[in-house]
Amino acid sequence: xxxxxxxxxxxxxxxxxxxxxxxxxxxxxxxxxxxxxxxxxxxxxxxxxxxxxxxxxxxxxxxxxxxxxxxxxxxxxxxxxxxxxxxxxxxxxxxxxxxxxxxxxxxxxxxxxxxxxxxxxxxxxxxxxxxxxxxxxxxxxxxxxxxxxxxxxxxxxxxxxxxxxxxxxxxxxxxxxxxxxxxxxxxxxxxxxxxxxxxxxxxxxxxxxxxxxxxxxxxxxxxxxxxxxxxxxxxxxxxxxxxxxxxx
Length: 248
Fold this sequence. Notes:
Blueprint: H1 4-8, E1 13-16, E2 19-22, H2 31-36, H3 44-66, E3 72-76, H4 86-100, E4 104-107, H5 113-123, E5 128-133, E6 147-151, H6 154-163, E7 168-170, H7 175-189, E8 198-201, H8 203-218, E9 231-234, H9 237-247
Parallel strand pairs: 3-4, 3-7, 4-5, 5-6, 7-8, 8-9
Antiparallel strand pairs: 1-2
Helix pairs in contact: 4-5, 4-9
GO molecular function: hydrolase activity
Pfam family, one: Lysine_decarbox
Keywords: Cytokinin biosynthesis, Hydrolase
Protein backbone atom coordinates (compact mmCIF):
# COMPACT_ATOMS: atom_id res chain seq x y z
CA UNK A 1 0.00 0.00 0.00
CA UNK A 2 1.38 3.40 -0.98
CA UNK A 3 2.19 6.00 1.65
CA UNK A 4 0.72 9.55 1.66
CA UNK A 5 4.15 10.82 0.58
CA UNK A 6 4.14 8.57 -2.49
CA UNK A 7 0.64 9.76 -3.44
CA UNK A 8 1.57 13.43 -3.17
CA UNK A 9 4.96 12.98 -4.83
CA UNK A 10 4.62 10.24 -7.44
CA UNK A 11 7.79 8.44 -8.49
CA UNK A 12 9.49 9.84 -11.59
CA UNK A 13 8.67 7.77 -14.63
CA UNK A 14 9.73 7.48 -18.25
CA UNK A 15 8.43 5.50 -21.20
CA UNK A 16 10.72 3.36 -23.32
CA UNK A 17 8.42 2.45 -26.18
CA UNK A 18 5.53 0.52 -24.61
CA UNK A 19 7.47 0.02 -21.35
CA UNK A 20 7.05 2.42 -18.43
CA UNK A 21 10.04 2.81 -16.09
CA UNK A 22 9.88 4.36 -12.61
CA UNK A 23 12.23 5.49 -9.84
CA UNK A 24 15.85 4.49 -10.48
CA UNK A 25 15.03 2.79 -13.76
CA UNK A 26 13.64 6.05 -15.14
CA UNK A 27 17.15 7.47 -15.37
CA UNK A 28 19.21 7.08 -18.49
CA UNK A 29 19.41 8.12 -22.12
CA UNK A 30 16.68 7.86 -24.75
CA UNK A 31 16.49 5.71 -27.87
CA UNK A 32 16.92 8.80 -30.07
CA UNK A 33 20.09 9.70 -28.21
CA UNK A 34 21.51 6.20 -28.67
CA UNK A 35 20.76 6.41 -32.39
CA UNK A 36 22.05 9.93 -33.07
CA UNK A 37 24.77 10.54 -30.49
CA UNK A 38 27.92 8.72 -31.63
CA UNK A 39 29.44 9.33 -28.21
CA UNK A 40 26.96 6.94 -26.61
CA UNK A 41 28.63 3.80 -25.21
CA UNK A 42 28.25 0.52 -27.00
CA UNK A 43 29.39 -1.19 -30.18
CA UNK A 44 28.08 1.31 -32.76
CA UNK A 45 28.56 -0.89 -35.81
CA UNK A 46 26.95 -4.01 -34.36
CA UNK A 47 23.90 -2.42 -32.69
CA UNK A 48 22.64 -0.14 -35.47
CA UNK A 49 21.47 -2.90 -37.86
CA UNK A 50 19.39 -4.43 -35.04
CA UNK A 51 18.00 -1.00 -34.17
CA UNK A 52 16.45 -0.89 -37.67
CA UNK A 53 14.07 -3.67 -36.60
CA UNK A 54 12.92 -1.62 -33.62
CA UNK A 55 12.36 1.38 -35.89
CA UNK A 56 10.40 -0.81 -38.30
CA UNK A 57 8.26 -2.09 -35.43
CA UNK A 58 7.56 1.45 -34.30
CA UNK A 59 6.23 2.41 -37.73
CA UNK A 60 4.13 -0.76 -37.91
CA UNK A 61 2.64 -0.07 -34.48
CA UNK A 62 1.88 3.56 -35.37
CA UNK A 63 0.33 2.67 -38.72
CA UNK A 64 -1.77 -0.04 -37.12
CA UNK A 65 -3.05 2.18 -34.32
CA UNK A 66 -3.93 5.16 -36.52
CA UNK A 67 -5.06 3.59 -39.78
CA UNK A 68 -8.77 3.83 -39.00
CA UNK A 69 -9.09 7.13 -37.15
CA UNK A 70 -10.73 8.85 -40.13
CA UNK A 71 -10.24 12.50 -41.11
CA UNK A 72 -7.94 14.18 -38.60
CA UNK A 73 -6.09 17.42 -37.88
CA UNK A 74 -2.83 17.75 -35.97
CA UNK A 75 -2.77 20.56 -33.42
CA UNK A 76 0.54 21.89 -32.12
CA UNK A 77 1.45 24.33 -29.37
CA UNK A 78 3.54 24.79 -26.28
CA UNK A 79 3.59 22.23 -23.49
CA UNK A 80 4.09 25.21 -21.16
CA UNK A 81 0.78 26.90 -21.88
CA UNK A 82 -1.01 27.14 -18.54
CA UNK A 83 -4.61 26.02 -17.98
CA UNK A 84 -6.95 28.99 -17.91
CA UNK A 85 -4.72 31.18 -20.08
CA UNK A 86 -6.04 32.69 -23.31
CA UNK A 87 -4.16 30.30 -25.57
CA UNK A 88 -5.15 27.28 -23.48
CA UNK A 89 -8.79 28.21 -23.83
CA UNK A 90 -8.26 28.79 -27.56
CA UNK A 91 -6.78 25.30 -27.78
CA UNK A 92 -9.85 23.85 -26.10
CA UNK A 93 -12.11 25.65 -28.56
CA UNK A 94 -10.00 24.49 -31.51
CA UNK A 95 -10.30 20.87 -30.40
CA UNK A 96 -14.03 21.17 -29.82
CA UNK A 97 -14.71 22.87 -33.17
CA UNK A 98 -12.62 20.30 -35.04
CA UNK A 99 -14.50 17.45 -33.38
CA UNK A 100 -17.84 19.04 -34.21
CA UNK A 101 -16.66 19.38 -37.82
CA UNK A 102 -16.00 15.64 -37.97
CA UNK A 103 -12.22 15.56 -37.42
CA UNK A 104 -10.19 13.53 -34.98
CA UNK A 105 -7.72 15.71 -33.08
CA UNK A 106 -4.07 14.61 -32.98
CA UNK A 107 -1.59 16.20 -30.56
CA UNK A 108 1.72 15.29 -28.98
CA UNK A 109 -0.26 14.02 -26.02
CA UNK A 110 1.47 16.22 -23.45
CA UNK A 111 0.37 19.12 -21.26
CA UNK A 112 -0.32 22.75 -22.19
CA UNK A 113 -1.83 23.45 -25.59
CA UNK A 114 -1.77 19.75 -26.44
CA UNK A 115 -3.88 18.94 -23.41
CA UNK A 116 -6.21 21.81 -24.28
CA UNK A 117 -6.87 20.52 -27.81
CA UNK A 118 -7.39 16.97 -26.56
CA UNK A 119 -9.84 18.24 -23.95
CA UNK A 120 -11.73 20.17 -26.61
CA UNK A 121 -11.96 17.06 -28.78
CA UNK A 122 -13.51 15.14 -25.89
CA UNK A 123 -15.88 18.03 -25.15
CA UNK A 124 -16.92 17.97 -28.82
CA UNK A 125 -17.49 14.20 -28.67
CA UNK A 126 -14.72 13.51 -31.17
CA UNK A 127 -11.70 11.22 -31.16
CA UNK A 128 -8.78 12.56 -29.10
CA UNK A 129 -5.37 11.17 -30.15
CA UNK A 130 -1.99 11.65 -28.46
CA UNK A 131 1.38 10.73 -29.94
CA UNK A 132 3.86 10.68 -27.08
CA UNK A 133 7.65 10.65 -27.22
CA UNK A 134 10.34 9.25 -24.96
CA UNK A 135 12.09 12.20 -23.32
CA UNK A 136 14.62 12.56 -20.47
CA UNK A 137 11.99 14.67 -18.68
CA UNK A 138 8.85 12.55 -18.90
CA UNK A 139 5.62 14.40 -19.59
CA UNK A 140 3.25 11.47 -19.92
CA UNK A 141 -0.05 11.41 -21.76
CA UNK A 142 -2.56 13.99 -20.63
CA UNK A 143 -5.85 12.74 -19.19
CA UNK A 144 -7.89 13.75 -22.26
CA UNK A 145 -6.21 11.36 -24.71
CA UNK A 146 -8.51 8.53 -25.88
CA UNK A 147 -6.03 6.84 -28.19
CA UNK A 148 -2.40 7.17 -27.20
CA UNK A 149 0.71 5.86 -28.93
CA UNK A 150 4.16 6.30 -27.39
CA UNK A 151 7.20 6.55 -29.67
CA UNK A 152 10.91 6.14 -29.11
CA UNK A 153 11.96 8.02 -32.24
CA UNK A 154 11.02 11.57 -33.18
CA UNK A 155 11.11 10.84 -36.91
CA UNK A 156 8.61 7.98 -36.62
CA UNK A 157 6.29 10.13 -34.53
CA UNK A 158 6.58 13.10 -36.90
CA UNK A 159 5.62 10.88 -39.83
CA UNK A 160 2.36 10.01 -38.05
CA UNK A 161 1.48 13.68 -37.48
CA UNK A 162 1.54 14.30 -41.23
CA UNK A 163 0.42 10.95 -42.65
CA UNK A 164 -2.84 10.81 -40.71
CA UNK A 165 -3.75 14.51 -40.75
CA UNK A 166 -5.50 16.60 -43.37
CA UNK A 167 -3.80 19.75 -42.06
CA UNK A 168 -2.15 21.50 -39.11
CA UNK A 169 -3.39 24.11 -36.68
CA UNK A 170 -0.54 25.73 -34.78
CA UNK A 171 -0.81 27.65 -31.53
CA UNK A 172 2.10 29.65 -30.09
CA UNK A 173 4.92 27.40 -28.99
CA UNK A 174 8.65 26.88 -28.68
CA UNK A 175 11.28 24.91 -30.55
CA UNK A 176 9.22 21.73 -30.92
CA UNK A 177 6.29 23.66 -32.35
CA UNK A 178 8.56 25.56 -34.75
CA UNK A 179 10.18 22.29 -35.82
CA UNK A 180 6.82 20.77 -36.74
CA UNK A 181 5.69 23.98 -38.45
CA UNK A 182 8.74 24.43 -40.68
CA UNK A 183 8.92 20.75 -41.55
CA UNK A 184 5.29 20.86 -42.67
CA UNK A 185 5.99 24.01 -44.71
CA UNK A 186 8.89 22.26 -46.45
CA UNK A 187 6.72 19.22 -47.25
CA UNK A 188 4.12 21.49 -48.85
CA UNK A 189 6.75 23.60 -50.64
CA UNK A 190 8.36 20.49 -52.15
CA UNK A 191 4.95 18.94 -52.99
CA UNK A 192 5.53 15.96 -50.75
CA UNK A 193 2.04 16.64 -49.40
CA UNK A 194 -0.75 18.41 -51.26
CA UNK A 195 -4.00 20.09 -50.15
CA UNK A 196 -2.48 20.46 -46.69
CA UNK A 197 -3.57 23.71 -45.00
CA UNK A 198 -1.40 25.08 -42.19
CA UNK A 199 -3.15 27.63 -39.99
CA UNK A 200 -1.37 29.63 -37.29
CA UNK A 201 -3.33 31.22 -34.45
CA UNK A 202 -2.10 34.54 -33.03
CA UNK A 203 -1.06 37.39 -35.34
CA UNK A 204 0.80 39.17 -32.54
CA UNK A 205 2.87 36.05 -31.84
CA UNK A 206 3.44 34.84 -35.41
CA UNK A 207 3.56 38.24 -37.14
CA UNK A 208 7.29 38.89 -36.47
CA UNK A 209 8.19 35.47 -37.89
CA UNK A 210 6.09 36.05 -41.02
CA UNK A 211 7.65 39.50 -41.45
CA UNK A 212 11.14 38.02 -41.12
CA UNK A 213 10.39 35.45 -43.82
CA UNK A 214 9.03 38.19 -46.09
CA UNK A 215 11.61 40.89 -45.37
CA UNK A 216 14.69 38.69 -45.14
CA UNK A 217 14.22 35.30 -46.82
CA UNK A 218 12.02 36.49 -49.67
CA UNK A 219 13.95 39.78 -50.05
CA UNK A 220 17.24 37.89 -50.30
CA UNK A 221 15.81 35.41 -52.80
CA UNK A 222 16.14 32.49 -50.43
CA UNK A 223 12.47 31.54 -50.70
CA UNK A 224 9.76 32.52 -53.16
CA UNK A 225 7.11 35.07 -52.24
CA UNK A 226 4.50 32.43 -52.99
CA UNK A 227 5.88 30.24 -50.20
CA UNK A 228 4.18 32.53 -47.71
CA UNK A 229 0.87 31.32 -49.11
CA UNK A 230 1.60 27.95 -47.51
CA UNK A 231 0.46 29.35 -44.16
CA UNK A 232 -2.51 31.38 -42.95
CA UNK A 233 -2.46 33.46 -39.76
CA UNK A 234 -5.68 34.10 -37.84
CA UNK A 235 -6.69 35.23 -34.37
CA UNK A 236 -9.48 32.88 -33.31
CA UNK A 237 -10.33 29.20 -33.13
CA UNK A 238 -13.38 29.80 -35.30
CA UNK A 239 -11.30 31.37 -38.09
CA UNK A 240 -8.67 28.66 -37.82
CA UNK A 241 -11.13 25.79 -38.26
CA UNK A 242 -12.93 27.63 -41.08
CA UNK A 243 -9.63 28.18 -42.90
CA UNK A 244 -8.61 24.57 -42.43
CA UNK A 245 -11.92 23.14 -43.60
CA UNK A 246 -11.86 25.40 -46.65
CA UNK A 247 -8.34 24.25 -47.54
CA UNK A 248 -8.86 20.52 -47.17
